[in-house]
Structures are given as structure tokens and as C-alpha cells.
């Protein structure tokens, strides 16, 4: 590839447009944000303790062990009722949180480390390195994500690690672009310049001065993209291409609810509501942080 | 203009090359003997079929030659042979393309019609109750996966009221009315997330535009608010809207896979899904390369339109270049 092709990346223009210096003002957190964080913490607790919670730990999620019937409406015996096979919906939602959060964590960490790293290098080192990184990133961005995800799942086989890593890899370009935009402004601040002037090598400046200042703003984007990951995994699970049954995932529960839509709606409503609230909470907190750190949306 | 166009063309060619490389190497991701994986189990013992497969895929050729012959035939529309369905891949997908195309176009249209007034009013009432309500709405829409929207639409309109068909597809050539009835629910399911994206873009764009001098002038001349908003202020935003619609087609194409599956629509997405579950690798490869190439081309043309239509961009980029 000729360098000419990639030189037209409007670096300076974007840097000024995208980022203003963050203002760390102490403002009161709205109650909605607190509520969203509380919900996310609850999901994390669910994911961690699914195998130990009473009534939830295997084999209790199979309602037959507790004398539950098929498609039971919510009651004191099964708080959210049972599904078409007589399994406790609440217990399965809690187990599903495990899958959703695992995929989200692995994919986001992968995107954050690889994409964030590439973006910071591009934004700090500049020059030819930046041109090459950003041009490759643009090419990966030119692929339709879900199509590639489906294709790779078909060819590589369906398991949790493959799915998480493929989703993570597909998100790398977006992290790179956001990280680069933030880095461009951070790199011009006095303490970073001073650090370089005092003779610290570039790797040290990148690690000690740039990274800690890029990470908070980048984490806002990571939260929003965790929501996207959960939806993607849910979509795969809905298509039956995520982890194999009978392992509960939110998407597969929603898929299984289709068989009984004409009789009972609660097997559809509860898992989809939990998925919706989780993604909404991630978007809401992410949006809040983004505004707080002044990352403009066009950068994403 | 010309050097910029040349660079865009180079980028297009490079991207298409990477797309083709990626799709080509998919088959090599399969473990072990490629033809053992590609052929369905019942055909594997047949030595003649096996030899044919090796010949079709040029497996005995060196890699560059293999790639060359694959690209050569793909460009000519020959995407290989589905050993599961026993037809050419192109035969399998040819009549599915217009179905997915219609679904995508209708959902983009719906999303634009819904998002334009909402985005404009949110910008006009920035920070007020209307704006906060619309922003809350976009966050909500962004948080509901398309397949969940689709399921709830089926429950409400098909199961409860019985007004619209839950599944199936009527071609517009058979009955236009039935075609519209079958396209409404799936297209709406796809449109919801798009609406959110477009509203956010229009709002952010318009807030900037509304502070421009020429808007102030228009207002001072006594032109009505509606006219200023929709005739004067919206026009520059339409360009960024084109770009985002183009970029969003990637998400949309992915969305059609799950929506076509949910509503039993015989389009490209459903065919891709079926091929994935049946391990019909050549069909997966064919659809993936087709959709990716279409997506890349669309964004190239969106870029072109953008450059041609907006003189500011044309000049700014030229000076920067």
C-alpha cells in the first residue's frame, strides 16, 4: 500500500474537534446512575455466585427437583415462574448472567487492551506508524460485524472463548479510533511534554503519563460497547449459535420462549427484560461518563 | 478532487482485496482435509465426488494460483457449488438478494421518517423536557436487541390482534398489498435501533447548525420556525446523515440474519444462517464475501456523494491533502 493512500487521515482536525480537556468537577451523581450501577453490581454478584446460591445452584434450576410444573406462572415457589420444560426462570436468568458477563468481560478486555493500545501508540507516536495502524483499522471497520461473526463461528466452531475473542477482535477498530482521539489531546498536555523533555523514553511516557489519562475516558466507551457485546452474544444465542443447550443464556431463553407465546408470555418477558435493563444500565452509565469526560460522540 | 478520488479508489481496491483474502482463507480455517469438511457426510465416501471437490477448489494447486482462480470465478459470479444443496451457490442466493434489499430499504425509510422530526425537535428544544424525553427514548431503543423487538411485535400484532402475519413473505410481484403486510413487522424491528442512531446524529448536528449566523438571519427575516428548522437548518445535516446511513448498513445486514430467521423470510440472511447450521461452508463463504463487498462498495459511493455534494468538504480536504 502506498503511504499516499493513508496520508489523508485528518489527524489534527479530528483531535481538536473530538476532545476538550476533561474537567474533573465534583457533581452529584443522579439517582438514575446509582440505580443503574446497583443493577450492574447485582448482575455481577449473580454471575459470580450462580453455582452457590440456594435454589439456583445445580440441579435446583431444573424445577422437577422441587416439584415444579411446566409453564408455571410466577409464585412464591418459583419467583419468576417456570419455562416450557419446567425449569425455574429466575435460576436460569442468574446462570445466563454468567455467560453474558463472561463474554462481555473477555471481549471488552481484548478490545480495550489491543484496540486501546494500538490507538494510544498511533496517537502518541504519530507519523508513519499512525498512518499504518489507522489504515488497517479502517479496513477492519469496513467489514459487516455480525456477518463476519456468524461466518467465523461457522468455521471455527461455537464455544465461549471463540465467540468472546471474535467479538473482541471485531471491536478493536472502534477502541483504536477512540483511544487515538483521546491520546492526541492528552499528548499535548504539559506534564506529558515535560516527561518527554526530561528524557523519559517513549514507552515510559506512554505507560506512566498517557495511559492513566486515556483510560477513564476510554472506559466510558468500554461500558457502552459491553452493552453491544451482550446484544451480539444474545443474538447468537437466539440463533442457537452460542454455547450449547441446556446451558442457560438470556438469548437462548428468549428463543425457547417462542414455542409457548400463544399460552404464556412470562418466559419471554423476564429474560428479555433482564437483558434490556442490563444493556440500558451499561448505556446509561457509559453515556454519563462520556459526558463527564467530554468525549464527543463523533469520535465513536 | 482528482487526487482525492484516486486515494479513495486505492483504499477501495485495498479493502476489497483484504475482503477477498479473508473470505478465501476461511476454508483453510477448517481443521484437516478441506474436502472432508466441505462435503456432507453421505458424499464423502464417494471417490468421484471427492475428486470433483478437490478439482473444484483447486486444492492441488499452489496457493497463489488457487487464490487467483477463486477470485477470477467469484468476480464472474461463480461462487462455488453447494455440496449440501447440490446447486451452484449463485443459484441459491440470486433470488434472495431483492428480498433482503427490500427489507433493508423499507427499514431505512421507516427509520428516517421517524427520526427526522424527533431529532430536529430535540435539537430545537435542547436541554428542555422534549429533548430529555427524546434522549431517553434513544437510549431505550439502543438497548433493545432487534430480535426482542421482533418477538414483541409478533406477540402484539400477530398473536394478540391477529392483524398482521407473524411469519412468511409475499413477493411484491405476487401481491403488493400482501407484500406490504409481510414487510411491516420485520422492517420495524430493524428500524428501531437505526432510529436511535439517526436521532442522536441529527440532534448533535442541528444543535451546531442552529447557532450559525444564517439561521439567525432567517429568523430575523420573520420566517416561521418550522420553515427555518426543516428547510434551512436540516439541509447541511442531511450530508452527515447519508454517511451514517451508509455505515449503518453493515449493522443492518447483520440484523437481517436474525430478523429473517425470526419472521421466516427467504432472504440472504436466512440463507446464511441455514448454511451456518448445516455447515454448508461454500455458501457461507459466498454470502459473506458478497455482503462484505456490497457493504464496502456502498460506503465508497457514500464517500463519493459526500465529496461531490458538499463543496466545503471538497475544498477542506483538498487543502489538507
Provide structural commentary.
The complex is a heterodimer of chains A (300) and B (321). Chain A has helices at 3-7, 11-18, 31-49, 89-125, 127-141, 145-156, 160-186, 190-197, 202-238, 250-257, 266-293. By secondary structure, chain A is mainly alpha-helical. Chain A has one domain: MetI-like (MetI-like fold). The longest helix of chain A has 37 residues, at 89-125. Chain A is elongated, with a radius of gyration of 22 Å. Chain B is mainly α and 321 residues long. Chain B has a domain at 90-277: MetI-like (MetI-like fold, Orthogonal Bundle), CATH 1.10.3720.10. Chain B has 15 helices and two strands. Chain B has helices spanning 2-29, 34-38, 41-44, 47-56, 63-75, 89-94, 97-124, 129-143, 146-160, 176-209, 213-220, 225-262, 268-277, 281-309, 311-320, and strands spanning 81-82, 87-88. In chain B, β1 (81-82) and β2 form a beta hairpin. In chain B, α8 (129-143) crosses α10, α12 packs parallel to α13 (268-277) and α13 packs antiparallel against α14. The longest helix of chain B is centred in the C-terminal third of the chain and has 38 residues, at 225-262. Chain B is globular, with a radius of gyration of 24 Å. The mean pLDDT of chain B is 86.
Amino acid at each position: 500500500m502506498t503511504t499516499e493512500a493513508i496520508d489523508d487521515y485528518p489527524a489534527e482536525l479530528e483531535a481538536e474537534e473530538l476532545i476538550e480537556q476533561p474537567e474533573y468537577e465534583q457533581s452529584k451523581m443522579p439517582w438514575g446512575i446509582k440505580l443503574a450501577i446497583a443493577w450492574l453490581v447485582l448482575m455481577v454478584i449473580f454471575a459470580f455466585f450462580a453455582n452457590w446460591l440456594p435454589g439456583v445452584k445445580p440441579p435446583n434450576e431444573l424445577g422437577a427437583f422441587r416439584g415444579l410444573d411446566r409453564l408455571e406462572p410466577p409464585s412464591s415457589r418459583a419467583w419468576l415462574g417456570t419455562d416450557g420444560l419446567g425449569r425455574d426462570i429466575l435460576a436460569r436468568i442468574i446462570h445466563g448472567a454468567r455467560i453474558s458477563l463472561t463474554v462481555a468481560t473477555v471481549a471488552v478486555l481484548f478490545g480495550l487492551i489491543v484496540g486501546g493500545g494500538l490507538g494510544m501508540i498511533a496517537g502518541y507516536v504519530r507519523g508513519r506508524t499512525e498512518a499504518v495502524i489507522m489504515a488497517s483499522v479502517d479496513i477492519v471497520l469496513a467489514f459487516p460485524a455480525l456477518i463476519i461473526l456468524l461466518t467465523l463461528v461457522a468455521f471455527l466452531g461455537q464455544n465461549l472463548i471463540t465467540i468472546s475473542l471474535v467479538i473482541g477482535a471485531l471491536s478493536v477498530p472502534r477502541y483504536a479510533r477512540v483511544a487515538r482521539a483521546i491520546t492526541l489531546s492528552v499528548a499535548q498536555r504539559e506534564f506529558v511534554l515535560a516527561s518527554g523533555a526530561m528524557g523519559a523514553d517513549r514507552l515510559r511516557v506512554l505507560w506512566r503519563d498517557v495511559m492513566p489519562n486515556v483510560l477513564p475516558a476510554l472506559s466510558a466507551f468500554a461500558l457502552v460497547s459491553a452493552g453491544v457485546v451482550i446484544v451480539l452474544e444474545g443474538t447468537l444465542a437466539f440463533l442457537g449459535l452460542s454455547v450449547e443447550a441446556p446451558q442457560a443464556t438470556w438469548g437462548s431463553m428468549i428463543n425457547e420462549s417462542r414455542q409457548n407465546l400463544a399460552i404464556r408470555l412470562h418466559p419471554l418477558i423476564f429474560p428479555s427484560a433482564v437483558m434490556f435493563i442490563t444493556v440500558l444500565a451499561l448505556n446509561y452509565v457509559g453515556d454519563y461518563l462520556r459526558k463527564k469526560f467530554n468525549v464527543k460522540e463523533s469520535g465513536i | 478532487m482528482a487526487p482525492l478520488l484516486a486515494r479513495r479508489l486505492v483504499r477501495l481496491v485495498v479493502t476489497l482485496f483484504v475482503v477477498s483474502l479473508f473470505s478465501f482463507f476461511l476454508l483453510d480455517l477448517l481443521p484437516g482435509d478441506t474436502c472432508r469438511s466441505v462435503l456432507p457426510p453421505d458424499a464423502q465416501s464417494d471417490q468421484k465426488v471427492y475428486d470433483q471437490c478437490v478439482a473444484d477448489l483447486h486444492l492441488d494447486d499452489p496457493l497463489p494460483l488457487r487464490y487467483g482462480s477463486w477470485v477470477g470465478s467469484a468476480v464472474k459470479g461463480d461462487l462455488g457449488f453447494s455440496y449440501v444443496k447440490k446447486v451452484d451457490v449463485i443459484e441459491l442466493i440470486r433470488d434472495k438478494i431483492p428480498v433482503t434489499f427490500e427489507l433493508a430499504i423499507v427499514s431505512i425509510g421507516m427509520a428516517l421518517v421517524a427520526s427526522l422530526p424527533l431529532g430536529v425537535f430535540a435539537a430545537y428544544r435542547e436541554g428542555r423536557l422534549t429533548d430529555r424525553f427524546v434522549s431517553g427514548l434513544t437510549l431505550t431503543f439502543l438497548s433493545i436487541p432487534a430480535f426482542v423487538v421482533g418477538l414483541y411485535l409478533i406477540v402484539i400484532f400477530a398473536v394478540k390482534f391477529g392483524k398482521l402475519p407473524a411469519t412468511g413473505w409475499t413477493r411484491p410481484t405476487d401481491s403488493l398489498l400482501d407484500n406490504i403486510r409481510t414487510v411491516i413487522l420485520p422492517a420495524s424491528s430493524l428500524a428501531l435501533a437505526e432510529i436511535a442512531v439517526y436521532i442522536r446524529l441529527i440532534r448533535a448536528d442541528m444543535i451546531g447548525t442552529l447557532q450559525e449566523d444564517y439561521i439567525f438571519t432567517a429568523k430575523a427575516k420573520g420566517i416561521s420556525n418550522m420553515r427555518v428548522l426543516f428547510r434551512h437548518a436540516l439541509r447541511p445535516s442531511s450530508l452527515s446523515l447519508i454517511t451514517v446511513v451508509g455505515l449503518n448498513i453493515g449493522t443492518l445486514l447483520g440484523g437481517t440474519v436474525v430478523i429473517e430467521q425470526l419472521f421466516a423470510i427467504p432472504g440472504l440472511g436466512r440463507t446464511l444462517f441455514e448454511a451456518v447450521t448445516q455447515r454448508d461452508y461454500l455458501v457461507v463463504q459466498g454470502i459473506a464475501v458478497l455482503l462484505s463487498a456490497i457493504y464496502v462498495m456502498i460506503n465508497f459511493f457514500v464517500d463519493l456523494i459526500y465529496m461531490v455534494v458538499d463543496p466545503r468538504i471538497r475544498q477542506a480536504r483538498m487543502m489538507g491533502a
